[in-house]
Amino acid sequence: MADQEHVELIKNDVDEWNRLREDDPTLSPQLAGADLRYLNLMFANLSRAVLRNADLALANLKGADLRWSDLRNANMVGAQMIGVDLMGADLSGADLRTAEDLTTEQLAEAHGDETTHLPDDLPRPPQWSSIAGAR
User: Fold this and answer.
1) Which stretches of the chain are DSSP H helices?
2) Chain mean position to CA 18
3) Which of 52, 75, 86, 114 could pair with 110 as two cysteines, CB 3.0-4.6 Å apart?
4) Please, are residues 39 and 59 in contact by the beta-carbon 8 Å criterion?
5) CB within 8 Å of 72: residues ≥ 6 apart
6) Considering its fold, how many domains does the chain have in total?
7) Residue range of the domain that includes 27
8) Rounded distance between C-alpha atoms, residue 96 and residue 103, angstroms
9) CA pair distance 22, 6, nearest whole angstrom
10) Whole-Å CA distances, 44 to 13, 64, 68, 97, 123
11) CATH no. for residue 15?
12) Nearest to residue 86, comparing CAs of 129, 37, 47?
């Protein structure tokens, strides 16, 4: 369940959010199930965030830091993904079918499985099948 203070802060002021993250680098933001549709989250520090089941449809994630985030079953349909750092992020079950500017390089740095929905023009990274079997 999402921490409502985290949700309100990220919705209202990304710069203030980033200052909070800078002041407390150990913070693991709790944004599970949050409705973040259409938000401008450009350059947001969402590293280690719990975004499981979050709705990020049509969100502007340009340049966002999603390293080591839990994005399992997140709705990322139409999200703008240019320059997003997905290193170590868990995309298992996430819906990225119409995510914009998503690259094979970004996917190669993330974790996913056979339930991750990808754009038709992007291949599923080969290591995802072995990762899914190991969990």
Assistant:
1) 4-12, 14-23, 104-109, 127-134
2) 16
3) 86
4) yes
5) 52, 53, 90, 91, 92, 93, 94
6) 1
7) 1-135
8) 11
9) 14
10) 10, 5, 14, 22, 27
11) 2.160.20.80
12) 47
pLDDT tens across the length of the chain (135 residues): 789 999 999 999 999 999 999 999 899 999 999 999 999 999 999 999 999 999 999 999 999 999 999 999 999 999 999 999 999 999 999 999 999 999 999 999 999 999 999 999 999 999 887 544 444
Handedness of CA 70, 83, 122, 74 (dihedral sign): positive
Write down the pTM of the prediction.
Answer: 0.92
Question: Could you give the CA distance from residue 41 to residue 45 in angstroms, rounded to a whole number?
Answer: 9
Decide: helix, strand or coil at residue 80. Answer: strand
Phi and psi angles of residue 97, each rounded to the nearest 5 degrees, phi first: -50, -40
Residue with tokens 């349909």: 77
End-to-end CA separation in angstroms for the chain: 23
Q: What share of the chain is helix, strand, coil (3-state, %, to 5)?
A: 25, 15, 65
- Token pair 């449809």 is at which residue? 57
